[in-house]
Batch of 4 targets.
Target 1
Amino acid sequence: MFRRAEPDIQLKTPEQIAKMRAAGRVVARTLDTLRAAVRPGVSTLDLDAIAERTIRDAGAVPSFKGYHGFTGSICASVNEEVVHGIPRADKVLAEGDLISIDCGAILDGWHGDSAITLPVGGEPDEADRRLLEACSGSMWAGIAQLRPGRRLGDIGAAVDGHLRSRGRYGNVQEYGGHGIGTEMHMEPHVLNYGRPGKGMLLTEGMCLAIEPMANRGGRHVVQLDDGWTVVTRDGERSAHFEHTVAITAEGPLVLTARDDERDTIAGLGFPDPGFAA
């Protein structure tokens, strides 16, 4: 049913990649819906309810809900929370906050996984704007390495190199991207740092989630007593961006692409993932 490049590495056929794109569209539309709902006074639990309804209305299932006991359909991480924030009724957004929303969906047995970081209540201040641009740009730099014949280390080197070129940002090393397909988290683990030309050979049919996390301060993080929420050790703000991407002969195919990213993807010379008309 599947080809395998190495043990535990799942290679997808074009037909299977098309099914993953369908799951990715559910995730993309859910994030678009959440983007419109983010505003002061909204709780992260409110956003979670919107996400679950949107995913299920599309005939899909939230990937995160029940995953190792996680209670939410999204991860909602605010300000110094880096990743894995649990949606809560008492976590109410305020003007000037940053919120990172990580969303996953399963459709017909295939997973999509994507994350965005948004300012709450208008335009971010200059420091937050630069953080968001640096982190999202590092994701695109990593995605650009997803071509047959490149190496796993090329991805991490590109992510880290982009962040370093944009300022003194903390590149979180304890967490990273991953393989994805019939499961949400599969081999290989994708570091957000590395050495060019080193590591596993990238092969057509691999599908990887690329997800840098960048902090305004140091790179070090700690996990809270809830067993999930990861925060910056120094209390500085963080950003998190993620896309699910297939490696194809034509280049990186962004399976969770949103319609507003059409120009970005075209400008990078990536294959058209089939945007909505």
Target 2
Amino acid sequence: MDFDLSEEQRLLKESVGGLLTDAYDFDSRRKYMLEKGGWSRAIWAKLAEQGLLGLPFPEADGGFGAGAVETMIVMEALGRALVLEPYLATVVIGGGFLRHGGSAAQKEAHIPGIIDGSKTLAFAQLEKNSRYDLNDVVTSAKTKGDGWVIDGEKFVVVNGENADTLIVTARTKGARHDKSGIGVFLVPADANGISKKGYPTQDGLHAADITFTGVEVGTEAAIGDPENALPLIERVVDEARAAVCAEAVGAMDESLKTTVEYLKTRKQFGVAIGSFQSLQHRAADMFVALEQARSMSMFATMAADFDDAKERATAVAAAKVQVGKSGKFIGQQSIQLHGGIGMTIEAKIGHYFKRLTMIENSLGDSEYHLRRVSEAGGLV
């Protein structure tokens, strides 16, 4: 595999990095957290102006036809800046469902709004006691006339508090754990019968618990086959897992840089603590963990385009395992090497550790994915 970036990809990396360096320092981020929904509409508009919201969409739909590598580049930059805006929920996940399963009418109705920044989405999938199993769905979608009626509850829906459209998994037939009989539906966030309880999460993002009570949608709301949408869900979620791996690499990279800079400036016994060999060794171990995570993130990015669903899932699961382990190690070492200041809310290093911890527990933790790799017989 060729992991070298093309000239266009290097320009993209410089462009998004420059934008976030100018507009997303740590103090600005704290201000954005206080805005409605916990993120900045002005920054979202800048991402749209720079074309970042349209990257993965085909040119026929108004996008740039970029691939998984470009998504990786953007997500790494978002991770370095601890960006709060719903790029993952809207562009990666929401856009993924539309790109891979949406009808021409659905694409026309939603993609232009995503690209210009006027529309955001949220993926309502997690249910009570379902953990990370995508086929564990109790929320129901029953036919009524020419449409569907959705009933159920979804939890920790990232950006669910502010999204214009919800992408909802619901069971159209069968029992709770059946892999068939699952559909995906586009539901207006202001539809009758929807109630939300929004709240901030530990990493500064916002999520919502959402209840659907007799929510009626038309036949056009179903994305793809309403009785066999699990393969579509698995594909989009694998792409999202690869994306959060890249985001985690960005956060780990910045954590390491911040920690090394602190070691160079913090003095003890009249000298910089970075001169102590034991602390240098710990920083070196952090670098090794980062590079292990980076290589597996790149592998997951390449694997996101695999046609073989099992190979794709196993590769992405292996990446999630390594990224989770590296994130935990780098986060813990960063806090410890910063000492007491690392535990304060004013120090940004603690916020990186929080985000890394939330990524570890999003879309399957290390133990869950290690089991998936084991059940698949390993990577080779």
Target 3
Amino acid sequence: MMRRIALLACLLLSFPFSAEALELTGEMEQGGLVIGRAEPGAKVSLDGMMLDVDESGTFAMGFDRDHGEGATLNIVYPDGRTETRALAIAKRDWQIQRVEGVPQKYVTPPPDAMAAIARGTKLKTEARKTRANGAWFTEDFIWPVTGPISGVFGSQRYYNGEPRRPHYGVDVAAKTGTPIVAPASGLVTLADMDMYFEGGLVFLDHGQGVTTLIMHMSRIDVKAGDFVKQGEVIGAVGGTGRATGPHLHWGMYWRGAYLDPQPLAGPMPENGGAAGGN
């Protein structure tokens, strides 16, 4: 009898668990953030890039605006089992606007701005080198500011027939001085009021490199190294940098991929104005 029980136990251990060993939640699309949960101790890679996996097996991954139609996720479980998943990444349509007759000085920065641009690029590059240990990206994101949505992720303008950089964020119209709150908890990795393009800029790492970018701020109330909780005021709306007027620009990136924060926060509260679409 004992021999039969031992044999049955060996057979059960030789097959994969009946329960789902890997869970993926989020938008499997261009600009989407996906949260994964694997067995603790598992090693996970996306298209050959090793991902950060915390002690609970939680990890993040994202897909850039121009990501192709597929990706490959590989998992090595603690007992040596392996799994490969082919991911289908949905393509999105982007708003394209063509504007002709724009004076060149408004399209290309003047030569005397190069030093300021280089300074900002260096600061942003340094800030992106580290990834906070945490999984605050699993919180339900909230809007940093409420108001009418005036710009959406992925849109792109052509000035005088030349493509400009796509819009990597969502814009919310609001008055100068309107408080901005942290959409989720995280570690401040950059806080600077003097960026050429972004003006007042804050990077807030929500863990594993999932980072909020808040731009054009009139005031910054945090500094690099601060930990802020969701809902805490981090500064105020402004129109600093290359902005045509006061508004919130909320961007997000993960390990080089620009993500769309709008789906994470859900519909704009009714008192915030009507949300736009892509």
Target 4
Amino acid sequence: MHFLITGTAGFIGFHLARRLLDEGHSVTGFDGMTRYYEVSLKERRHAILSTYSKFKPIIAMLESRKPLTEAFSSAPPDVVVHLAAQAGVRYSLENPDAYIGSNLVGSWNILDLCRQFRPNHLLLASTSSIYGANHTIPFKEADKADEPLTLYAATKKAMEVMAHSQSHLHKTPTTAFRFFTVYGPWGRPDMALFKFVSAILDGRPIDVYGHGQMSRDFTYIDDLVEAIVRLIPVIPQSATRTDAAIDTISMHAPFRIVNIGGGQPVALGAFIETVEEALGQKAFRNMLPMQQGDVPHTFAAPELLHSLTGYTPQTPVSEGVRRFVEWYRQAYRMNIKAAEIVE
């Protein structure tokens, strides 16, 4: 099949594109190479993807309708996977305009072009941040998610709602998946694991928010990609429920929301201990209160994902962290070229 994936220079888009290319599919990769974090890391990811003959990169912003239209028209996709977004909970407090442009205007452009070009399936990346400070544990897709605590979460919720309306009006089969704290090799430098490993190896203290009392449902990148790949052929059909008790398919549109998480939250303190063990080095901890917009806990209900695909993310955090540390040592401590890095 031919895939159009937005965000292929990003962490998740890179891994998904490489998996699909390895399976023999063709991929048009659309990415804006924004400067939210070091562009060189994004360029290294794209350099690896560009070694595949069936990969076509397009560098442009989602808000720019013309190049996005050309990406659709030059090779009409069978499947669209929209992963590109302005990420980061805390950065949304500093630069809200970036979230409006990318996550709302950019996502609208994707939705409207899918109306025109009619792919077999549109898959959208949403986030567990949508649940806000949900007191119902674990977080279920059918839980009320109308009280986001950050603009980032609000724009992702808005994207889901826009996608549902387009799915209803134009019968675009759409799956929105909510990610839970994705980590692994080639991860984002603004994420906790990357920051912890970098600081500990350099002998710098790490900032531990919420005094270490928070917990997160960590999802290893390979598990996330496996879940997405398995969801690609699970095309929603309006009001056709696989399991009436848990399925979220809309009664008015071929639209479904699915959590991608293992349902195994880990306390922040335990996570830091796992990082220390993988590095063989102790951290100096700077204990701090919760940051504005943070939530104390995330906890995915994985039953719908398992019902649809037979799969549940399962890589232990200890193993996932070990793999990240191995990659980091190669990529950042030994200055090995990107094309030579082996995970």
